[in-house]
Design goal:
2 domains; 8-stranded antiparallel beta sheet; 4 helices; 12 strands; 34% helix
């Protein structure tokens, strides 16, 4: 008799704990968004100022354009925009598959074959080493570091030789500036998964 009563109370206690835990979990789902909403509403006015001075922001994927080339463009679109490359080299990446590199004067465009082997290639990395090719925001090789941070804000990581910006996109994507003596030497953006 004692054993049955004890078992009964243990089960009731477990049910109460489970119910309390469920209620707290559900409450946190509602309270956290409200707090975030209140916070974002109250700081919205100073957003632009604080971005450049204190925290890094993720750049929109669509801003990853160098010259007239953007990530995801087809090889046909690249050749139409830039003309015939100085060289075109086919390659193979163990994880990614067939690749093609188009070399222009001061610009390297790396492409990856479509997932379905159709013979079509799409841009997964763009690298500029010439001031002839600027980002969509006007940054080019030769610009000073302060211009980069004025335009793009604080980098996610960086030092005297490199500034790396986070990108708001579903796959791992990068946007980097290689620096030398306080000036941009190279601009690279890419998508790890093509």
């Amino acid at each position: 008799m004692k054993l049955t009563a004890n078992y009964h109370y243990q089960n009731q206690f477990k049910q109460v704990l489970f119910s309390a835990g469920t209620i707290l979990s559900l409450a946190s789902l509602f309270v956290q968004p409200l707090a975030v909403q209140a916070l974002s509403t109250s700081t919205n006015t100073n957003y632009q100022i604080s971005q450049n001075n204190q925290q890094f922001k993720k750049l929109p994927y669509k801003r990853l354009v160098i010259g007239s080339v953007s990530l995801g463009m087809s090889e046909t679109q690249v050749r139409k925009a830039l003309g015939k490359p100085l060289s075109a080299k086919n390659g193979y990446e163990a994880i990614a598959g067939k690749t093609r590199t188009l070399q222009y004067s001061g610009l390297t465009v790396k492409l990856l074959e479509d997932i379905k082997p159709t013979g079509k290639y799409f841009v997964y990395e763009i690298e500029a080493t010439s001031s002839k090719y600027a980002t969509v925001d006007g940054i080019k090789v030769g610009d000073n570091t302060s211009k980069v941070t004025r335009i793009y804000g604080k980098p996610e990581s960086g030092d005297t030789t490199r500034l790396s910006y986070a990108v708001d996109y579903s796959s791992p994507t990068y946007f980097n500036f290689t620096l030398e003596k306080g000036k941009v030497k190279k601009i690279v953006c890419g998508d790890f998964l093509g």
